[in-house]
Amino acid sequence: MSERTNIEKTLGADERFTTMTSALHETGLDAILKGNGPFTVLAPTNDAFRHFREGSGDHLRHDPQVQCKRVLQYHILFGLLVEKDIKKLNFPKTRLGITVEISERAGQVTINGISLAFPDIICTNGVIHGIDTVLLPPSGIWGHLV
Question: Which domain holds residue 123?
């Protein structure tokens, strides 16, 4: 992709994120990621969603307006946080209203212990960081779901 576009279009054009794109569309969150932002999206790859469903996550897609939407909101941060800046934060707030934990180990930035597999995909309204795992909010918030 030679010309920058918004997060929603960038995700949709990247074959690594077709499941994420579909889930965003199903929940209506794609409309937000077309907006001005800036946003930072922690985008699980198709493989991440496949492994998630093989575990215990398939039931989340049965109620996209509630459960899936909440999980996806946990992947959206406010502001333009490229890798060199995000590693300076400890607990940035997600669109879900709770935080994720940012740390750096041996020069590798992690989100809740998950490495950024494809960092700094720059868009017109923010940045995408591809990750290889679907992040789940803390179990106290989800109770029986996780």
Answer: 7-137
Q: Is residue 95 part of a domain?
A: yes
Query: Please, are residues 74 and 100 in contact by the beta-carbon 8 Å criterion?
Result: yes
Tell me how far CA of residue 3 lies from CA of 9, 42, 106, 122, 123, in angstroms. 11, 21, 33, 10, 9
Q: Is 143 part of a structural domain of the chain? A: no
Place of tokens 């215990």: 56
Cα dihedral across residues 141, 38, 127, 33: positive or negative:
positive
Is the whole-model pTM more than 0.85?
Answer: yes
Tokens of 21: 């794109």
CA atoms within 13 A on the CB side of 116: 27
Using one digit for the tens of pLDDT, what is the confidence trace for 65-90? 678 889 999 999 999 999 999 988 98
CA nearest to 5, candidates 27, 28, 37, 29:
37
Beta bridge partners of 115: 110
Tokens representing residue 64 in the block: 């996209």
Give the amino acid at 62: H
